[in-house]
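Quick look at the format.
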Amino acid sequence: MATVERMPPGTVRLNDASSHPSGTKHVYTASTGSLVLQPKPTDDPDDPLNWATWRKWLNYGVVLVYVLFTFTLLDIAAVAYSQLVDELGMTYQISTIATALNFTGLAIGCVAFIPLTYRYGRRPIYLLSVTVQLVSAVWAGSVKSTNEYMAVNLVMGLGGAISETIVQITIADLFFVHQYATVNGIFLFMQGTGAFLGPVAAGFIVAAQGWRWMWFWNAIFLGVTLVVVVFVFEEATFIPSSADEAMANPPASSEEGFDGAADTQSKGQKGLDPLEMSRTTSLASRPVLTARSRKPLRSRLALVTKTDAPIKHHYITPFILLFQFPAVAYTAVTFGAVLAWFSVLISISSTRMVDPPYNFSPSDIGLLNLWPFVGQLIGALGAGPVSDRWIQALAKRNGGIYEPEMRLWLALFPAPLLVTGGILMFGIGIANEAPWVLLAMGIAVFACGFSVCLDVALAYLTDSYQNVSLHSHLQSLKPDLAKLTRVIGDALVGVVFIRNAISVIVLFCLSPWRDAVGMQNLFVMVGIISFLFCMVPIPLLIWGKRARVATADKYRYYSGRQPGHRPV
């Protein structure tokens, strides 16, 4: 039997149909046998992993509403380009600079705000984000000059900066490893809904009420979102009590290196899909909860849940992690590359297709976004469940042991073909004034590959560095060190910063790049570069586990500096 010493961060026992030593929590599926819950919940009723399924999904549902209107706000500007040209004297160069400033705000805001979630909790940061976005939406609808337009884009980026990182932290708060890809798929779907369907609605609003009202309507919906967050979203920060830590560190089993194992469940629970796992968890598979009282609603909806944990290192650690952990670097590069290429597609389509031979109106530009919406819908809702079932099957073949690299096969096929093919279809087509349907199909194909790449990258990062338990002998010598720890927030801050930094660079260079090489050559170059970026999973499939082994001690060091450790 494998020992803990040989298990790097991310390698966990995901299923075990044959043996169940005491201690590990399971759910049962027909295809894989007993599925071990990772991370292991405590016996505290306030542990978000122990929340009832409806309570988890209500909280996550509020987050999804926040994501929807955040990405609507961030992506509707291109619809009104021709109106901005007429009223504010907008030019293509100013438009790309404004978009680049938006990404600058996204990059800076993430670094500035996310560390505060460790000191003050999730709720105040969500509330701050929605409030800043609400103010920026009202301001955007009132701008009088291009300089003011560029300034509001920077503030808008600051307001939406946490939108991806804090969502991943919330997912890690509420859900288990075997659910990550599915839950991330839903997140990416809502992200895409805001980014793609938001402009569709905005196009009709511009046609009917003018471009300013597309911002004012967004402000109204953000105001409703603010009220919902205030009165519905519960604080998901979990601070274990001393009783949790004492009960969570019994003597290690002599025959199992995965912190012991557990009670099995009745075979009547067979056949559950990944989205039903948390329901099973909330019933028979959950640890027996203690009699302590659950926090009152007033405490769960408190404005601030303050801890005394230091946070200064959270402003530096994200950049250190980028260079020390290959999984973090891979996710950052993947996010940065695909988002940059997507920004190129949107920028070119919104400015070029308002001219002959296309002559698109604002509503036409908005409707064009239906195509990438369909593409990302197929990618997001397909990749997540397929990825989760894929890893369960591979883990079963691997003796129940799950390796995060098992997810990466989907990033090699079909993602590179979709991403590169979509770029070339759109780029070569628009350079040769091809029918708009061909251009729309290219964006849709790209969006499908875009969604698959992001879902796999997010799940791989979360799986690799979500948790790690110390050696079993440390549990008996130093129980306070035997904790499930997290560095996912710091890692994602670095990922989002690099992602937006790449987009800023590409957008600032886009206009002179296009002028220098021409439209067709621009997209041929982008297609080749995108394909090379999509090949990054190959070295991870070969050396990824070795890298996790080599960086295990560093991971334990950084995770040990995280506040709110969860006991094993």
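Next, a different chain entirely:
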Amino acid sequence: MRDETVGRLSRHVLRYVEEELANYPLYRTAARELRLDLEDLRQRVNGARLDEAGVRGSGSGDPVADRALRIMLLEEQLRRKEERVQRIEAGLALFRPEERELVEARYFSNAGRNHEQAMMELGFSRSRYYQIREAAAYKMAVVLGLAE
């Protein structure tokens, strides 16, 4: 079975890059919320008394240890989210202004524009729009380690 390509990228790589771009605002928000959760949890651990009563449920019975474990899990989630955000931002930094405009109009907008709507908003011809999209996707794929 032949792998379809769009310019220099396979179709599945292009789709993955587009999904990462579309999820970028979500990743940023999730990272911000995880930071807040961690800060709150750390304050509760620092304020916990050693003789605090055990917790009910499937925990260890040690509320401080349970919170410490939760902190470790949240830190790992935050690390992954921040890594994704940083990689996407590194790719965005390489974009030409028209590539950035296209990505913002198509993927970062709350309006949920499809390609046709973004194309019309930006005033690009169909061929120009897809050339810019391909160039931006290729740069992002290289930064994400999906293309050479």
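The beta strands are 5-6, 9-10.

See the schema section for token definitions.
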